[in-house]
Structure formats: C-alpha cells, structure tokens
Amino acid sequence: MAVLETPRASHRVRVRRTPLTWLRGGGLSNLLFAVPLLFVFGAFSWWPIVQAIVMSFQKTNLVTPALFVGLDNFARVLGDPLFLTAVRNTGYFALLALFLGYPVPLVVAVLLSEVRRWKGLFSALAYLPVVVPPVVAVLLWKFFYDASPTGVFNVVLGWFGIGPQPWIQSAASAMPSLVLEATWAAAGGTIIIYLAALTSVAPELYDAAEVDGASVWQKIWHVTLPQLRGVLLITLILQIIGTSQVFLEPFLFTGGGPANSTITILQLIYNYAFQNSLGGNYGAATALSIMLAVFLAVLSFVYFRVTKAWSTN
Amino acid sequence: MKSAFRVATAGIAVVATMAALAGCTAPKPAADNQKVSISVVSLIPGSKQEAFDAFDAQVKQFEKANPNITVTPQEYEWTGPTFAAQLAGGTLADVYTIPFTDGKTLIENGQLADITSLVKALPYADKFNPKVVNAVQDSKKNFYGIPIAAYGSALHYNRALFTAAGLDPDKPPTTWDEVRADAKQIAEKTGQAGYMQMTQKNTGGWQLTTATYARGGRVETTTNGKTKVTLDNAGTKDALQFLHDVRWVDNAAGSNFLFDWGSINQAFGAGQIGMYTSGSDIYTNLVQSQNLDPKDYGMTVIPMKGKNAGTLGGGTIATVNIKATAAQKAAAVKWIDFYYMKKLTNKSAAVLDAKTLDASAQPVGVPVLPVFDKKTLDTSRAWIKPYFNVPIDQMAGFSNGILSQVPVGEPSAHTQELYGALDTVVQAVLTDKNADIDALLKSATANVQAIVDAG
Q1: Residue B264 and residue B124 share a domain
Q2: How far does A43 lie from chain B, in Å, by closest CA?
Q3: Is the pLDDT of residue A20 over 50?
Q4: Is some CB atom of chain A closer than 8 A to the CB atom of B251?
Q5: Looking at residue A261, what is its pLDDT?
Q6: Up-side HSE of residue A294: CA atoms within 13 Å toward CB?
Q7: Does B424 touch chain A (CB under 8 A)?
Q8: Is there a contact between A258 and B431 if contact means CB atoms under 8 Å apart?
C-alpha cells in the first residue's frame, strides 16, 4: 500500500495550485480573457435569473422597497382561475402545433430534397417567412384573418362557395388560426435543419433500397426517417419548449381573447406584470415564470432520459 | 472544477465591484440658476408632423422664457401595460400624464413625487374644482400632480355613415333604443358596424362601466370602508343584453370584436364604425393620428336610462417623476404651468397657445369639462373663440347636454382588475351567441371580490 501511495502523493503535490502557481500558469490572463464573457452572462443572464427567483418570493412594485411574502405569490398563481385556463390553452396550442406544425417542415424538407431543379429557389421560398419580422407577419395575417366577407381568406373561401369564417374573432377558431400562422412563420427554420440532416443520409442506403425494389414511401419510411431520428427528437423537444412559451401570436393577434380563449401561460405572466397600470404583480409574474421554467427543465430531462436509447440505437 | 469555480467567483466579484461603483454616482442638488434639463411627454406616436411642429414651437417659447431650462420632448401614449413597464423600469419622462383612475393608488404606493410646495405657489392652487383636485391629493391634501383636463363620456358618431344610411347627422340618437335602431340602419345600408364598443386591455370594462352608469347601475359600492363588487347589477345586465342584441339580433356590430382605445379610434377614423362610446377628449387623436375628416365627426351625450343614471367622468393628471431632482421638479412644475395650465387661467397665454395650434392646423376649441369652475372655463374659451377651428356645431349635442348629466367617478377599488374581468365578459357576449350573461357576471363578481378582499 505504501508503495502505491507514494507516487499518488507526489502526483498530488505536483498538481496542487497555490495563488503563485496559478499566477505563473497564466491564470490571471485567463481570467482577464474570461471577464467580458462573465460580465455579459452575469449581467444579462445569470443575475436576472437570480433576481427573478428572489422576486418570486417578494411583493414589489419596483419603486418602493420590496417585502418578502414567502410562498404567497405561488399560492396566488395556483389559486387564480385563469391559471388552469392558461395551462389548458397552452397545451392546446402545443398539441395543435404538434399535429400541424411538426410534420409540415419534415414533409416539405423531404419533398425539397427530391427536387432536382430550382432547389435553391424553393428552399429560399420555404425560408422566406422566417426573415419576415414577426410583428409584420402578424399584422399581415390580421388582414388575411379579417372576419368580414371582404377579408382575404374569406374571399378565397367564397370562391369555393364557403361562407365567411370568424377566424380570430371566435373562441372556437382563434387558437387554430394562431397555430396556422405560427406554423407558417416558423416552418422555414426547421425545414433548413431537416434539409441539412438529409444531406448526411448515405446515398448507398437509398441505392440498396432501390435494388430491393422499395417504393418512394418505403424509402422515406425505412431509410430517411430512421436516419433523421436524432434530429427529429431534438426538434420535437425544441418545439414542445417553444410552444410552451408561446406569447407573440396571442399577444399581437387577440390579446388572449376572445373571452380568454387564447390566453397562454406567457400571456398570463405578462398580464400579471403589466396589465395593471398601477404597478403589476411582479411577484406573481416571476413565480409563474419559475414554475414554467422548472416544468420545462424537468420535462426536458425526462424526455432525454426516455429517448436516449432511441436516438443512439 | 475548482479552477472554474475560482474564475467564476473572481468574475462575479468584478461584476459586483463594477455594479457598486456604478451605484456610487449620486445626483447633486442644483443651484437656482443652474442649467436644468427635463424630459416631458409630448404627443402620441404617429401624430401628424404639424402637431409636432406646434409642440416644438411651444417648447421654444418656454425655453425662451426660462433660459436655464432645457426641455426634451418624448413621444408618449398612456396605455396600462406600457405605463406599468415604464414606471417599473424608470423610463418615464420627468413630466408625464396619467388618468384620474390611477392617481390615488399611485399616491398611496409612493410612486408619485410630492410637489405640494411648488403647486401651492401657483396662483390658482386653491381654485381647483374639489372633485377634480381630489384625484391628485393624499389625505393630508398634499399635491402629487396637477389636474390638467377633465372629460365626460360621450357618444361619437360618423356623420358620413349617418348620411349614407339615410339618417340625419344633426339628430343623433337620444335613447338606447334609438342607438340600436340607427346602428341597424347603418349596418344594413353601409355594410359597416353600426355600433361597437371597446373590448381589450381593460377598456372593455371601462366602457361597460360607462354603459352601466348610463343605465343607473354601479359596479362597486363602499360601505364603512368595505367594498362590495356588484358587477351582476341590473344596469350591467341591460348594457350587455343591448350589446348582445346589436351583435346577434341586428347583426350591426361588424365583424371585429377585439378593440382597445387606439384600435377603435383607428377603425372609427377609417369609417368602419358608425357609433361608439369613449371619453369626450378624443377628437384631437382622431384628427391628428387617425386622419378623420373633421366634417365626418359628430359627438353627443350618452343616453341616460332609469333612476340613478349618470355619466362616467374622468380626466388627466400631469405628474412629476419621483426620480427627478429638486431642480428638475421645480422646472417640471413650471412646464406643467406653462403648457397645460396657463391657457386656462391667463388670457395672453391662452391666445398664444391657440394661435400656435391654429397656425399648425391643430384643433382649437374642442369641448372640455371644467378643471376649476364653469365660469373660469367659459372665460378661457371666450378668449380663444376667434381661433376655434373645430366643428363646434357638430359637437353641440355633447356641449349642450353634458353639464345636466350627473357625473359619477370611476370605481375606486382595484379598478384595473375589475375592468380586466369585464373585458372577458364583453368579449364573450360579442363572440358567443349563447353566452350566459348572468353566469358570466356572477363569476366575474366572485373573482373581482376575491381580489378586493385580498387587499
């Protein structure tokens, strides 16, 4: 044992750092290089997170001194009748986006990958909505969604003998309308990711499938999708996280209406903080933000644990 | 890992030190003759260039009279959410305006600057209408702002749509039944919304409260300091039933049911709405920002129905940023006196203001309610009568009727939350044909009462 311990002890002596060795080893210059990064992350990312956690236990209007109120803010949020409505609406948005928004980019990417001519043009057209500023896109779609018979979509429907639809002016159709626009606006980014992933699929696999007499659909099902498995799993969790934080569409299109039918968790957070001009309930807003962040962190952790085997095998 | 921890610790120490150093910069008090800069709110974003020119001209007049003060105008539109963010973020101008609704609570919360000594030095400090000045004072009668304008509720109507629908624009409706009949006729003849109300960002509740008062209802009652929320009163039910019938029976409410103050003004300015209710002070916005042709504008009083019917009144307060230095506070009150108040109390100032606005083709002579008393108001309006350039005759229905209506203040307890809860009810009635008005109001009453009871 003694024989074994001696070299370990000497090793420990060699690597032990004192301020002097740290300085001689270039520690100071390393620190100086890291300071801007630490400052930026500290000031704009970590510090606000710490502040938000502290604020979730406070009653404050950000002008007069804050008061610690324990878990009151969390109780207030959980007791708010709108909380369940917001959770339900957010889940509904996520579900609709999953059925509509998730497969669309994949289908478009697969189709685009099969295109032989004008591929660049089609890719650019598919990506175009992403470069339109989101607020401009929403204003544009507000014209499309005009519920009067002269609204763009209603005129188009009229060509097929279908009467004017209320779109965002009805509790029943407001949320699907928001998902439709959100899908249009975001699909381009995901299409590009899928197109990039598709280039990594070995052509030999398609050749082998063709030799085996596979049809186009069989090639997609048995070659393309399994090869994209890793990317698909990542985009799925990103979509779930993204849709759980949906804010822009309900805020700009409907303000959470009609009659709270599109109020989402982030819109509720916004309302807690800013709806009341007299100084919002920043404590409740941060409490709900923390709850959402913890939920998404746990969800992501579980998701990656569950899908680890699928993405590696 | 230890190394990383040390680096992180050192980084945080650096950040903390920098933050501490930044915090060491304290404002120094200014001497009387020292140069002072203040920022003041000007016009709402999107106003016409002529309006900004007129404002800039007034800034120059002020700076000429007060050479040690520099004024920086800042575009501003009061909305609940943006105001809350600006207040919390400390980005409000040194002089800004708020509605009467918020005065009391902001004073109680310690969010407004105490400008008592500065206001009391003004010659008209003890001449304010007691009901109006109450909005800017605490229980010790200290001043936290200056009331600069008071308004009543009004029914605004588009004369062009009235004419197109075969109605006489000089005979606006005087009862709610007439409002409904005219709205139906406008919708049938022009295809536009005959009547609509605001529904979003707490304005739906604000206007439903207006409609409730007009039918004799009240949304809150306070006895021995205890507030009872009474959203399920007969007046509110009647107002919602009216809205339901306009929308679902007459199909006269158009197809857009998500409006706030700005967007309904925009729709009205674009000729998409025949009638709507709002404060009596919106003419300037409609002309400056919404390109409304003045000859198309008409304003009358809101019809009163039943016992205890009243008109919801309100107004605007000019306040000083709580973060302003003593010198800035003094300069700020001077600006408020110059820009908002002198034209109400001093003939030469009133004429200069009217001349400046008229030269830039900005509205002069829009009917207002008295901040002091009716006699002072009439006198100040007589001074500038030669410069009136707004279609006063088209507002005669309001001017002749408003002072005979009973003014009722806004609900005092948790006003914004109450309005927000009513937004949902108004939207439900307009978008769901089978909306259960009683159930909606019962639920909203319980929710708001819980907020009021929680304090």
Answers
A1: no
A2: 8
A3: yes
A4: no
A5: 96
A6: 7
A7: yes
A8: yes
- Cis peptide bond N-terminal to A258, omega within 30: yes
- pLDDT for A14 equals 59
Chain B: nearest CA to A289, how far in angstroms?
Answer: 17
Interval B367-386: pLDDT, tens = 988 899 888 999 999 999 99
Q: Which of A39, A275, A279 sits opposite B88 (nearest CB)?
A: A279
* Residue entry with tokens 């959470």: A256
| Token pair 């908002």: residue | B340
Mention every residue, 6+ apart, whose C-beta is less than 8 A from residue B223: none
- Give CA–CA dist A272/A26, Å, rounded: 49
Facing A275 at nearest CB: one of B12, B420, B432? B420
Q: Is residue B120 scored above 90 in pLDDT?
A: yes
Does B446 lie in the same domain as B349? no
* DSSP-derived 3-state class of residue A127: helix
> Do B188 and B226 fall within a single domain?
yes
Q: Does residue B431 lie within any of the structural domains?
A: yes
* Chain A positions in Cβ-Cβ contact with residue B89 (cut-off 8 Å): 62
> Is there a contact between A279 and B111 if contact means CB atoms under 8 Å apart?
yes
Indicate yes or no: CB of A34 within 8 angstroms of CB of B432. Answer: no
| CB burial string B173-197: b at 16+ within 10 A, e below | beebeebbbbbbbbbebbebbbbbb
Label residue B225 by pLDDT band (50, 70, 90).
confident
pLDDT classification of A15: cutoffs 50, 70, 90:
low
Interface test with A, best of B257, B319, B418 (most A CBs within 10 A): B257
Q: Under a CB-based contact definition with an 8 Å cutoff, are residues B213 and B430 in contact?
A: no
Please report, for chain A, the start and end positions of each structural domain, with discontinuous segments joined by +. Answer: 2-55, 72-312
Per-residue pLDDT band for B200 (boundaries 50, 70, 90) equals: very high
Domain enclosing residue B420, as ranges: 159-312+406-454
Least Cα separation, residue B329 to chain A (angstroms): 18
B300 in the same domain as B172 = yes
Enumerate the residues of chain B whose CB falls inside 8 A of the CB of residue A34. 7, 11
pLDDT reported for residue A308: 78
**What is the DSSP code string of B221-280?**
EEETTEEEE-TTSHHHHHHHHHHHIIIIIS--S-S-----HHHHHHHHHTT-EEEEEEET
Is the CB of B257 inside 8 Å of chain A's CB atoms?
yes
Smallest CA–CA distance, residue A23 to chain B, in Å, is 12
Q: Give CA–CA dist A52/A283, Å, rounded.
A: 9
Report chain A's mean pLDDT, rounded to a whole number: 88
Cβ contact A224:A198 at 8 Å: yes
Fold that domain A72-312 belongs to in CATH: MetI-like fold (1.10.3720)
Q: What is the pLDDT of residues A177-212, one digit of tens each?
A: 999 999 999 999 989 999 889 888 898 998 999 899
Question: What is the least distance, in Å, from the CA of B6 to any CA of chain A?
Answer: 9
Sign of CA dihedral A242, A243, A247, A251: positive
Q: Which residue of B has its CA nearest to A282?
A: B88
Record: contact B12-A38, CB cut-off 8 A: yes
Q: What sign for the dihedral angle of Cα B426, B429, B435, B441?
A: positive
Residue of B nearest to A259 (CA): B424
ipTM entry: 0.80
Six token digits for residue A97 = 């986006």
Instruction: Give how far the C-alpha of residue B250 lies from the chain's centroid of Cα atoms, to the nearest Å.
Output: 31
> Which has more pLDDT, B241 or A278?
B241
pLDDT at B297 over 70: yes
Share of chain A above pLDDT 70, in %: 93
B13 touches chain A (CB under 8 A): no
Residues of chain A found within 8 Å of residue B79, distances taken between Cβ atoms: 277
B274 is a domain residue: yes
> A283, A312, A259, A308: which is closest to A73 by C-alpha?
A283
Whether B305 and B322 map to the same domain: the answer is no
